[in-house]
Amino acid sequence: MTSNRPACAPTVSDRLTDQQLTIAMITMNEARAVGQVIEDIQRIVPEAEILLVDSSTDDTPTIAEALGARVIRQFPPEGYGPAMDLALRSAGGAVVITLDCDGTYPADRIPELASLVLHEGYDLVDASRLSGKPAAMPWLNYLANYGFALLASALFTRRLTDLHSGMRAYRKSMLDGLRYRAEGAALPVELLLRPIKSGFKVKTVFIDYGNRIGVSTMRPLSGAWWTLKRLLAVRCG
């Protein structure tokens, strides 16, 4: 696979602290992946805070805590949106990088994304999976993502490629002042489009997207419906 990393990608020039960077993940029964994902993050950015909002019935929170992550239990589950909202609001870092806890996103790109916020002045950096069709993404998912990105591009007069990336870097001060609806599915759509509509400085970088560790719990039809609802709500709201 051809890497999407730029030849001279920016890096974090000074040491990160847990006050500067939080890696936030939403987890539900990711015991097969969570250890590897946390160890990858710690290898790349050992100073960062790792925060999980967890609704698991397996050993995910136990494994994460043993590796030094901060775990906030949300059980019984309240859904992805409220869990992500809790993670973003609870993060201690000046930059919050979201990551799916399934091994699909490249932890080695974290310093680049953090640097673009800390040193280049961006408020949000979207790590798009869709410079082309990823080998790890089923055709149905790819076509749906591509189609919704085209629709959003037309509605927001800005070229967008991936409304659902699980890997983004947010300036915490922007998040603290951003008004969005946490309830319901497809929150990542609003967390990308709302800052764009509000005039924040947003950048897209392209990343490689890998195979998932474990079984996906995605529901494509429900996800498509919520994506459309979120997209139109932001555009009209």
Give a written overview of the molecule.
The chain is 38% helix and 15% strand. It has a 7-stranded mixed beta sheet with strand order 3-2-1-4-6-5-7, sandwiched between helices. The chain has one domain: Spore Coat Polysaccharide Biosynthesis Protein SpsA, Chain A (Alpha-Beta Complex), CATH 3.90.550.10. Strand 2, helix 2 and strand 3 form a beta-alpha-beta unit. The chain is an alpha/beta fold and 237 residues long. The radius of gyration is 17 Å and the shape is globular.
In a few lines, what is going on in this structure?
This protein is of the alpha/beta class.
Please indicate the percent range of residues in DSSP E strands (runs of 2 or more): 5-15%
Quote the CATH topology.
Spore Coat Polysaccharide Biosynthesis Protein SpsA, Chain A
CATH superfamily: Spore Coat Polysaccharide Biosynthesis Protein SpsA, Chain A
Backbone shape? globular
Query: Segments where pLDDT lies below 50 for 5+ residues?
Result: 5-13
- Structural class by sheet pairing and helices: alpha/beta
| Overall number of domains | 1
- The DSSP helix count reads 8
CATH class: Alpha Beta
Helix content: 25-40%
Distance between the termini: 40 Å
Number of strands: 7
Question: Reading side by side through the largest sheet, how are the strands ordered?
Answer: 3-2-1-4-6-5-7
| Mean pLDDT, all residues | 90
* CATH structural architecture: Alpha-Beta Complex
Q: What is the N-to-C order of secondary-structure elements (H for helix, E for strand)?
A: EHEHEHEHEHEHHEH
List descriptors.
237 residues, Spore Coat Polysaccharide Biosynthesis Protein SpsA, Chain A, globular, 7-stranded mixed sheet, single chain
